[in-house]
Amino acid sequence: MANILNGKVPPGSISDKWVQYKSTMNLVAPNNKRNIEVIVVGTGLAGASAAASLGELGYKVKCFTFHDSPRRAHSIAAQGGINAAKNYRNDGDSVHRLFYDTIKGGDYRSREANVHRLAEVSVNIIDQAVAQGVPFAREYGGLLDNRSFGGVQVSRTFYARGQTGQQLLIGAYQALSRQISLGSVEMYNRHEMLDLVIVDGKARGIIARNLINGKLERFAAHAVVVATGGYGNVFYLSTNAMNSNVTAAWKTVKRGALMANPSFTQIHPTCIPVSGDYQSKLTLMSESLRNDGRVWVPKKLEDAKAIREGRKKANDIAEEDRDYFLERRYPAFGNLVPRDVASRAAKTECDKGHGVSPTGLAVFMDFASAIHRYGKSKAHNQGMHNPDEATIVKLGEEVIAEKYGNLFDIYNKITGDNPYKTPMKIYPAVHYTMGGVWVDYNLETNIPGLFVIGEANFSDHGANRLGASALMQGLADGYFVLPYTIGQFLANDIRTPKIDPNQPAFDAAEENVRKQIEHFLSVKGSQSVESFHRRLGRIIWDYCGMSRSEEGLKKARKMLRELREEFYRDVYVPGSNNEYNPELEKAIRVADFFELGEVMIVDALHRNESCGGHFREEYQTEEGEALRNDADYAFVAAWEYKGWDQDPVLHVEPLHFEAVELKTRSYK
Amino acid sequence: MKLTLKIWRQGGEFGKGKFETYQMNNANEHMSFLEMLDVLNDQLISEKKTPVAFEHDCREGICGTCSMVINGQPHGPLKGTTTCQLHMRHFKDGDTIVIEPFRAQAFPVIRDLVVDRSAFDRIIQAGGYISVSTGQAQDANAIPIEKDVAARAFDAAACIGCGACVAACPNASAMLFTSAKVTHLAMLPQGQVESHKRVKAMVAQMDEEGFGMCSNYGACEAECPKEISVSNIALLNREYLNANLSRTDF
Ligand SMILES: Cc1cc2nc3c(=O)[nH]c(=O)nc-3n(C[C@H](O)[C@H](O)[C@H](O)COP(=O)(O)OP(=O)(O)OC[C@H]3O[C@@H](n4cnc5c(N)ncnc54)[C@H](O)[C@@H]3O)c2cc1C
Ligand code: SF4
Ligand code: FES
């Protein structure tokens, strides 16, 4: 059997663990904190909240982002909302229910203790954000409003129009800005971490490239926190921001950290479909739309064909000729089934020939019933008793505009269609990565002093993440977990003097980075970095995307290895190192995507079951639902990277379910 | 679509900067403006020429990274739209398009179309926050806030920090940006405690960064991709006046 990992879950009952543990943790006294330095890489929700909170506690923080400003982190793009077990609706929500929904939503592949802690601190996040001035949506009485998200039957999602991530990130950015002005955080914009430095077995610094002039700079500290987001861009096309990448996280793996469940990636059901091969990214239409949008395809293949060929429009299809396939297959949750389930269902319909875009890869999301329903109710509220159809539609559209106006605008800008009048066309796209660097209960990796938080770690979402819970996790980690748990490590380091960056470990790491850069600049091949990234993404999407098979994965591994060889031989990177050079930045990132991609394939091949976002064609029920195998696979697979010429080595963390019963996930 | 692109190149072999002209023969109307530039860069790379440097990230109109002046207008011709959300269907076959960086003394050019907007960060650092540390907050529903007031705060908080207002302003003033943050926080009860101190510090920082004066042209609002209203500037002025009259704030 493989090497066993210890998640360091503290003792006690699930609901008391965190509180008890917190009260017995090692503390670092204020006078010692002033001498302890911490590096935080990343300024998304996780990084910004962590850097601000550590600064407030009195640590000396150095914070890094490759962006021109901390406020640009990819978290800014989150649309729909953030969960919290506030139970302001009085609809039966509780910490336990949020915990249970998240475990079940994750298809029983996450660590119970972490998820429970997440649910516990979720309520503090909302308080903190409101105190910072985050303008969440409110009701007429002035109290906070909520909406529902997929996979749950309560309303616990807080939101700020369709820009929740933006508003939460601005809140964290402002908290960070305050610490910068107070001098407790030193901010390094336009600096990209390209290696981790380990001294005597502990994480003690990083090598970063100054993106303006290409200089490699060394930064030393007592501990390093990596909060660099997810790796969805390994697929090339995804809803992630263009510059999101795996490099920082991957460099830690190359230094000995473990990559956990890398094949657990989330394909989001509602994105604007691909329109052409020049396309650079995909745009998400928030899941909150599924509160009101009904997903359907034409029942008759000839109708679908007519729509694809432009001979018919959605509105020409009579009600009885529409198949609301989510409502049909999953009556209990309807359009609000979890993402993995909704995505696969859409793929199934398109594979059967019911797709509605010229490429055949799209289904409709229709707001007509919601417009009607809201219109009637608003008319009623305004005292109109027999409103005519036009008035109902007008009022209904106003309600929809208030709820989703900016999403409808985005859709209109991109497609040129008006979604108030004709259903949206949507298709699944890569959105989030549940997998990530392995961390224990303290959010510490197997390298002492190296912590990984936010989307970059693997911790809380198992094999599938529920909507509105990534923002929750990022902020939970940064505001309410890491600032405590990092003390467990740092308390033993109060006598360690300032770490000197002029020592052999830093020399070696810097040399390692320099060699890689020199290689890419010297190849002078004939193909652009972008073209390789596109081809790599295609391999991963085709064989390690929405559905996977042993045969496909084996083939993909071979294709990927050949492509990587070609990349190193024939890539063309213009310019030099000592200047602003985005092509060079991309080359380094794509190189890491190749290595990660292979480990994803190895992970997907090894996991002989279907669970959450990981759907292996060989393991499904007769009805086409995922077939999990708890007897053999109820564990976290964490991979140790051994270099390109060797297979990665498996470490496992067995998952124990004490507070919830392992059950087949059903949304029917 | 065939296009003629006149693009500002600066740094590296282009030194202090000049316009270069490029022919683009394979654009199409479904592309976004930045995808059109991607295609141009692919073309340049295949000819072993230096691609055009421009900044972008989310390509969804929310991160505020993309920044360029298109035919004289920051973020191009479409109202309420960032460059990344502008599609080529708004241009015609045969058009000539002039592309330049945001120009302002406080936004030095780094390369081609890339400018340094860190002055905005320093304005926020001067006071664009509420001083509450992690863990100090009371229950979120303890202070009800009127829906309309919250909406007004939100409208101002929707600023993406792109800098188009500065690029649009004949004086390169940062008033719209600064006033959006002042308004966002001043509207909320939580933000009122520090409001006098905040407005003074932020205005002082704005001056120090070398942004110009506001003389009410209104070009900022017209070009702002998030349609931030100039009424925020009026609110800032009121706050500033009150702050200077206030005796609680020595
Ligand atoms: C379109 C979209 C909508 C979403 N909507 C929702 C939603 O409604 N609700 C929800 O809960 N979740 C949502 N998510 C998911 C959620 O936004 C992300 O999971 C979350 O914001 C990740 O935050 P983070 O702090 O971990 O990383 P990020 O926000 O990705 O931040 C990463 C940071 O690391 C920095 N960085 C990365 N690499 C380096 C390096 N090598 N050197 C220096 N700095 C580096 C970056 O500059 C950046 O500052 C959405 C995601 C997408 C794509
Ligand atoms: S006010 Fe408008 S133009 Fe100015 S930075 Fe904000 S969003 Fe951009
Ligand atoms: S790239 Fe993010 S706003 Fe344009």
Question: Which terms summarize this structure?
Answer:
heterodimer, A: 668 residues, alpha/beta, Flavocytochrome C3, Chain A, domain 1, 39% helix, globular, B: 250 residues, Ubiquitin-like (UB roll), five-stranded mixed sheet, two-stranded antiparallel ribbon, 9 helices, 36% helix, binds flavin-adenine dinucleotide, binds iron/sulfur cluster, binds FE2/S2 (inorganic) cluster
Please describe what this structure looks like:
The complex is a heterodimer of chains A (668) and B (250). With 668 residues, chain A is of the alpha/beta class. Among the domains of chain A are: 269-430, Alpha-Beta Complex (Flavocytochrome C3, Chain A, domain 1), CATH 3.90.700.10; 503-633, Up-down Bundle (Methane Monooxygenase Hydroxylase, Chain G, domain 1). Chain A has 18 helices and 22 strands. In chain A, strands 1-22-21-11-17 form a five-stranded mixed β-sheet. Chain A has a five-stranded parallel β-sheet with strand order 6-3-2-10-18. Chain A is globular and about 80 Å long. The relative contact order of chain A is 0.16. The mean pLDDT of chain A is 96. Chain B has 250 residues and is an alpha+beta fold. Chain B has two domains: 3-111, Beta-grasp domain (Ubiquitin-like (UB roll), Roll); 117-249, Fumarate Reductase Iron-sulfur Protein, Chain B, domain 2, CATH 1.10.1060. Chain B has helices at residues 33-46, 118-125, 147-157, 164-168, 175-187, 189-192, 195-208, 219-223, 231-245, and strands at 3-9, 18-24, 69-70, 73-74, 96-100, 109-111, 114-115. A five-stranded mixed β-sheet of chain B has the order 2-1-5-3-4. Chain B starts with a strand and ends in a 5-residue tail after the last helix. Chains A and B meet through helix 3, helix 5, helix 6, helix 12 and helix 13 of A and helix 1, helix 2 and helix 3 of B. The site of FE2/S2 (inorganic) cluster has 13 residues of chain B, from loops.
